[in-house]
Specification:
A hairpin with an 8-residue loop joins β17 and β18. The strands form eight sheets. A six-stranded antiparallel sheet has the order 20-21-22-29-24-25, with no helix packed on it. It has a four-stranded mixed sheet with strand order 6-4-5-7, with no helix packed on it. The chain is mostly beta strands. About 0% of the residues lie in helices and about 20% in strands. The chain has helices spanning about 10-20, 565-570, and strands at about 85-90, 95-105, 110, 195-200, 210-215, 225, 225-230, 265-270, 285, 290-295, 330-335, 350, 360, 395-400, 410-415, 425, 465, 475-485, 490, 575-580, 590-595, 605-610, 615-620, 650-655, 665-670, 705, 710, 725, 750-755. The protein is flat, with a radius of gyration of 70 Å.
Length: about 750
């Protein structure tokens, strides 16, 4: 047996390698290729590893599956998709029944592949398509559901007596029509049909036939046409639908040859023999008549030099037949009456040569003046030499009438001339040509004349004089006059005396405190800002007599603004005590002093209360009433006026402990509810809790009040024992440590301050 290379095991290969060792000192090692060798025994392109039968080239993964009881395509299935369906045929008539089938490559004994259903598989005479020719036999031999004696279409003929028992219009007595059906069952369809058309023999295939040779048929017979009337069925160019041509044939079969042929040329009479004919004489003909041409471009057939397209020449003939004579070959000449070589543009004539007295130049603007033409040099001769519409332009000078002989002329009386006329000047700066001392640029003097011509008389050289009735050196402005000198001794140069009957009143007079305006500045001397309130230095109550916006209240006090935030906006940026009127001037409470913090968190804060307590704290409601009588002790507390400080819908609070030694404790918040006026009980809408970021310190539920055993929001309706409190330690305290309150941690806050804005 021959050992295939694929059968060599690694062990055998190793032994073979050792068997090749030489006895020589140096070992010789032969390298053996251990890669497997691919073998294709049947040569079908697939090796034994992929080929399920490597001895049969017809069996491989690419082969087509055949019905041969083999797995041709190596997919593990035999004859899949190649089998046929066969039907049981019990009577052997070649037709089976679908109820009994088998899948096989060939029909087994007693089976057929016919797909039509046998309606009686026990009788070989009964099968689809069998003959039924006995009209007395009721058997359905052809399996169509009826027998030969049945009249299925109800036309009076049994099935065996006609050719189609399913169509009522088909029977031996029916009329044959053109419908590709044997209507009368004579074995021929459409033969003798009553609606057959007449067809005419068309030997020349021009779609027209010879009327002498016709037949009737449902369809056009070969070599026949539906139309007749062909006068020569051997000539395709001759029939009733043909176009008459110049070919010596009666193309349109009208009995005339070459009459009005479509391809005939039109010929035109050429009497002047210039090769161009008269378009009015055109006549169609197959042959050219004598004395005619095919060109109709002659506009004058009596003139041999005139035709369409000829070159126009100067001969008084319309050579090119465009309707104009000698156009483009003549020149325009202009009448030159003054014989200066320049003609009158409005007197012209077109001609081939210049007529007598004419020139080809049209640049004369005055054909009666031989020194005037377009382009001539302008000279000072009162003639428009260069024809530009102006006379002596650029050569004359404008002179002005100088009636007062002051060297300056009247600008409205001027004259253009080549030389200076008598009584004229070149200077137009005189505004009064009757006054020799008046001209533009002259120095104004006091002489009742407009010397410098600026429209004003004696301006800047006169003075205003005021009548000084009380002799205090100041006159009243209503009694002033303007003149070069004072009209009399009672007129002075200074005016604005507000009382010219009293020597104590004049501008700059010493002010008094009696309600009079001695210095004539429009304000009484003890009301500097004009707000109607006198200065405190004169015994009045205006605390700022330089600001009209700061007014004293009817009761007392003079507010700087409405709130600390308002006066911050007015430029008051220093912390301190200010007088404010939050409910408005003349309404509600009088102005009162408050402490304003203008630097913390943007400033504009009004102090609500200020307290020094090392164990938390309290402030009884009743004690806040003392801020009116003892503001310094209670640090300007405004608890009972909180509602006046509301901005929009909120009260913005700032709680802080400025005395803290380790941290600066502060918390800022806003709430819509006023803690003084809200109902006691649970926390109402508008409040929110706050917290202080410091160990063992806390703040809850905004500002609160206490009442013996309960804590609730301050509403101002409780007894004087009610108070506000704040918590700084681990418990809420208000005054001592007897109830287990713990003091604040070392270094804890002890000064509490509440502010609002």
């Amino acid at each position: 047996m021959t050992l295939s290379p694929l059968r060599l095991s690694p062990l055998l290969l190793t032994l073979l390698a050792f068997g090749c060792r030489s006895d020589d000192k140096d070992a010789v090692v032969d390298t053996v290729d251990t890669a497997p060798v691919v073998v294709d025994e049947d040569g079908d392109g697939f090796s034994g590893e992929d080929d399920c039968d490597d001895n049969d080239a017809a069996v491989n993964p690419d082969a087509e599956e055949l019905c041969d009881e083999l797995d041709n395509n190596c997919d593990g299935a035999v004859d899949e998709g190649a089998l046929s369906t066969f039907y049981a045929d019990g009577d052997g008539d070649g037709f089976g029944v679908s109820a009994y089938t088998v899948e096989a490559c060939t029909a087994p004994e007693g089976y057929t592949e016919a797909t039509e259903e046998d309606c009686d598989d026990g009788d070989a005479a009964i099968y689809p398509g069998a003959t039924e020719d006995d009209c007395l036999d009721p058997t359905d031999y052809n399996c169509d559901g009826s027998s030969g004696l049945t009249d299925g279409d109800g036309d009076g003929f049994a099935a065996c007596e006609e050719c189609d028992d399913s169509a009522r219009a088909v029977n031996p007595s029916a009329t044959e029509i053109c419908d590709d059906i044997d209507n009368d069952c004579n074995g021929e369809a459409d033969v003798g049909a009553v609606d057959a058309e007449t067809w005419y023999q068309d030997a020349d295939a021009d779609a027209y036939g010879d009327a002498d040779f016709s037949l009737e048929s449902c369809d056009a017979p070969e070599g026949y046409a539906a139309l007749s009337g062909d006068c020569d069925d051997a000539e395709p160019a001759m029939n009733p639908g043909a176009t008459e041509l110049c070919d010596s044939l009666d193309n349109d079969c009208d009995g005339a040859v070459d009459d009005n042929p479509s391809d005939a040329a039109t010929w035109y009479s050429d009497r002047d023999s210039d090769g161009y004919g008269d378009p009015a004489t055109g006549k169609a003909s197959c042959e050219q008549p004598a004395g005619t041409v095919e060109n109709d471009g002659d506009c004058d057939d009596k003139e041999a030099l005139a035709w369409d397209g000829a070159t126009e020449v100067c001969d008084e003939v319309d050579n090119n037949c465009d309707g104009d004579t000698d156009e483009g070959v003549t020149s325009t000449y202009y009448l030159d009456s003054d014989e200066d070589g320049y003609g009158n543009p409005s007197r012209k004539q077109d001609a081939c040569a210049a007529p007598d007295g004419y020139t080809d130049n049209s640049g004369d603007c005055d054909d009666t003046e031989e020194l005037a033409w377009t382009g001539a040099t302008e000279v000072c001769d009162e003639v428009d030499n260069n024809c530009d519409g102006d006379t002596d332009e650029g050569l004359t000078t404008t002179y002005y009438l100088d009636a007062d002989e002051d060297g300056y002329g009247n600008p409205s009386r001027k004259q253009d001339a080549c030389a200076l006329p008598d009584g004229y000047t070149t200077n137009s700066g005189d505004c009064d040509d009757k006054e020799p001392l008046a001209w533009t640029g002259a120095k104004e003097v006091c002489d009742d004349a407009d010397n410098d011509c600026d429209g004003s008389t004696d301006e800047g050289v006169t003075s205003t004089w005021y009548l000084d009735f009380d002799g205090d050196g100041f006159g009243r402005s209503s009694g002033s006059v303007t003149d070069c000198t004072a009209p009399s001794a009672i007129y002075v140069a200074d005016g604005d005396d507000c009382d010219d009957t009293d020597v104590a009143f004049y501008p700059g007079a010493t002010e008094g405190c009696d309600g009079n305006d001695y210095d004539c500045d429009g304000d009484v001397d003890n009301d500097g800002d004009g707000d109607g309130y006198s200065d405190v230095t004169c015994g009045g109550n205006d605390c700022d007599d330089a600001d009209a916006a700061i007014l004293p209240e009817p009761g007392s006090g003079c507010a700087v603004g409405a709130t600390c935030l308002d006066i911050l906006a007015d430029g008051y940026t220093t912390d301190g005590v200010y007088t404010v009127d939050p409910d408005g001037y003349g309404a509600g409470d009088d102005p009162h002093d408050v402490y304003c913090d203008q630097t913390t968190d943007g400033g504009g804060w009004t102090r609500v209360y200020y307290q020094d307590s090392k164990l938390g704290g309290f402030f009884a409601v009743g004690e806040f009433e003392k801020n009116r009588t003892d503001p310094e002790n209670y640090r300007y507390a405004i608890l009972n006026d909180l509602e006046d400080y509301r901005r929009g819908g909120e009260l913005e609070f700032l709680m802080r402990w400025p005395g803290h030694t380790t941290y600066t404790l502060a918390m800022q918040w806003a709430q819509t509810s006023n803690p003084v006026t809200d109902t006691a009980g649970a926390i109402p809408t508008g409040y929110r809790a706050i917290s202080i970021p410091y160990t063992n310190n806390g703040w809850s539920a905004g500002l609160q009040r206490s009442n013996v055993s309960t804590y609730s929001l301050l509403d101002g309706t409780m007894s004087p024992l009610s108070n506000w409190y704040y918590a700084v330690g681990t418990t809420y305290c208000w005054g001592d440590t007897t109830n287990g309150c713990q003091p604040a941690p070392a270094g804890g806050a002890h000064i509490a301050e509440l502010l609002v804005r």
